[in-house]
Amino acid sequence: MNRKQHIIIILILGALSTISPFSIDMYLPGFPAIAADLNTTIDQVQLSLTSYLIGIAAGQLLYGPLLDRFGRKRPLYAGMALYILSSLGCALTTSAETLILMRFLQAIGGCAGMVAAMALVRDLFPVTETAKVLSLLTLVIAVSPMIAPTLGAYVTATAGWHYVFIILAVIAALIVVGIYTALPNGVQPDTSLSLRPKAVLTNFYSVIKNPQFLTYTLAGGIGSAAPFAYIAGSPDVFLNIYKVSEQEYGWIFAFLAAAMIGSTQVNTLLLRRFTSEQLIKVALTGQTIIGTLLVIGTIGGWYQQYSLILLLFLFLCGQGLNVPNASALSLAPFAKQAGSASALMGSTRMGMGALASATVSFLHNGTTLPMVGVMAFCVIAGLIILLIGLKLSAAAPEIVAQIGPPEIKEATALGEVKL
């Protein structure tokens, strides 16, 4: 693979991975307009975000076995078609209930891109490079929250929120063209895999029982649910509590997204000297400290708009270290089952994100506390799970596949990395 092909593949995989961030972030500034147009409340509109996250969590479990059984592209095309149709359904909806349903179907289709992108990273790149590749993907993903809310704010203000979903459908159609023309197929279909429920569950179980996968998927999953609490709560916090305009909210969201962009690039540099295991531990520890300060300061009434934004920025910097390293460590032990492992990892993440989002909505009390409280809980729980998992695996260090400096990496024939 030459450098040009490498860049093109990263861009396409990044575009596939940005489908969900765009779908989540682009309509956030339109929450008040959607609520007014559909004669409902912002709390009800927030449930369309929760239904989207539930759809992603459920859909990834569906696509994992399909991607392993039929290859990467056929299920991907089917998912993208569903995404395009349901996006148009969102644009044409006239009730909050229909919007919630269409968002669920939109997620079922769009999550094919997330699972396929992760599996293709494992297919197309050596296991010792996956953390770096995932950092680059995270960079592409992190750009979308800078663009999506700002674009969504201006689209909502000038043309109406319905056009947000029309634009999403057009973007998805363009990605399909890129998949068809420039994306390699990845591993060949495995016709020996059965899609019967018992066989699928057995395959999932063989992935889940891997201690390394379980530790980093759970720790990284609940830790990465914190931004979903922020996403669910930030429209109410900034638009209603701090009374910023839709356009100002878009720029605030873009500024905070820059935290992840910068930290993913720092992560790529740090991987030259440190292991992924070390970096994720530092990230969750730092986020735990900042999350605790957010809760204490909110209760004490310490923060104004700009001080809150600054602490949120520092908190979200941890995601650039958490997400790519947890993903790489979760997928490292798998070669043949990369699709199923990617699906389980993504489903866990989005399921926890949906729970965090729903909790913020349920605890809504007109203050910032529900948002920052759920954010803090997520990273504290993630750190505890990580420390317990590492302690349990210390008795069997051969299962821990660290990804970091070249001198400690040794790829086996099965695609595992052992110390």
TrEMBL record:
Major facilitator superfamily (MFS) profile domain boundaries: 9-393
GO MF, one annotated term: xenobiotic transmembrane transporter activity
Pfam hit, one: MFS_1
Keyword Secreted found: no
Entry membrane topology: Multi-pass membrane protein
Major subcellular location class: membrane
Protein family membership: Belongs to the major facilitator superfamily. Bcr/CmlA family.
Protein's recorded name: Multidrug effflux MFS transporter
